[in-house]
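anyone seen this seq b4? input:
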Amino acid sequence: MSDRIPVQLIQTFEPAPTKIKARSTDNLIHTRSFTGLFRTLRISGAGVLFLLFFGTVWLNWGGRQAVLWDLSESKFHIFGATFWPQDFILLSALLIIAAFGLFAITVFAGRVWCGYTCPQSSWTWIFMWCEKITEGERNQRIKLQAAPWGLNKLLRRSAKHTLWLAISLLTGLTFVGYFTPIRPLAEELLTLQMAGVSLFWVLFFTAATYLNAGWLREAVCMHMCPYARFQSVMFDKDTLTISYDAARGEIRGPRKREANPANIGLGDCIDCQMCVQVCPTGIDIRDGLQMECIGCAACIDACDSIMDKMGYAHGLIKYTSEHQLQGGKTHLLRPRLIGYTAVLLVMIGALVVALMQRPMVSLDVSKDRGLFRENSAGQIENIYSLKIINKTQQRQDYHLSLVDGDGFILQGKTQLSLAPGEIVDVPVSVAMLSERPGKGSQEMTFKVADSDEPGIYSIAKSRFVAPMNR
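predicted toks r here
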């Protein structure tokens, strides 16, 4: 009889916990209602943002809409300031600052932007609230979805979609109202006289809000938003993310409230599934950090409420870092975060300086396509067109001149009076004195200055063309 090969047990495996299905049989995520600290913070923050978005558009300032991007006039009003296309570099700077701010907050606390202030998330929470008040709580909505069509289902669904469409229409009207005066726009909508471009864009943004917040929801965060893809490169082991404390929570399992988990070989997680049922993207945070997590902290509030009922300490799910989960200490001040913050502060300071030093009069110079000509006095002459914009909110008097214009004469209208926001094109000519030696093409600097306040001015450069050795 041959010898048998001995069998050696190398490793044993614990049975995997039952995978919880976040979606119902209709493949939709039906979230459960909950309360808690982070929900209160999110609602308060979103409430302020909604107040700003829906309220600011109705404010007046100096007889006009306080905040208005007037596309027809190519100017942007923000309360007492008016910005022109020449100032759009400031808008670019503002967008860059916003990007660096997003990078800095992501390094510090992950996707809190997504969970608390992102418009997609904020409007989705509102639409979910509409579902709750029209179709009931999570289990009621699941039953209603599976039920055959009848009067009850028809009325509840109609009420939900009516609320969705009303919020979407108000959102579309408000957004377009930042580009077209809101009061006549609203009057046209109420009297059903809206047409043309305004009607198209109101309907477009209404449809976009209705689809994104009502139907696509978590699909936008999981599949369409690029931020979900590149956020991981900004995380480090000290980034505060929503995490499940497996060392404390495992092994999961139900138990009686008075039972001591240590005596029955269980951790603090009672496997109640609340953290999954409240998640707007339908993930199980106990599986670890996932791309789909938007950092809304709904699972923290839900878990803490269960810990209260069981008499356990909060923090089974919490904002923490990888270092802290491994028994170390979170380092709040670290090179990457300090670098982002320093750059952010420098850019904010530069933007503030640029806004304070922004010239309140604009000057653009266009040279006539002809090279030069000789006038009746025998002088070489170039023709220019000066575009001047009064960026202030008052009528201003201006004076045109040449900077370091020795040997040249500026001819044309040099004294101007412009109404607030007025744009004028002024044709002028520059003649070179006959006794000045010619140098061919040379730089020419024009200046427009306030007649009463010389400190308010703008300059622009062009070229003066003359024959050589004149």
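The first helix runs from residue 37 to 56. Residues 13 and 122 are 42 Å apart (CA to CA). kinda curious what u guys think
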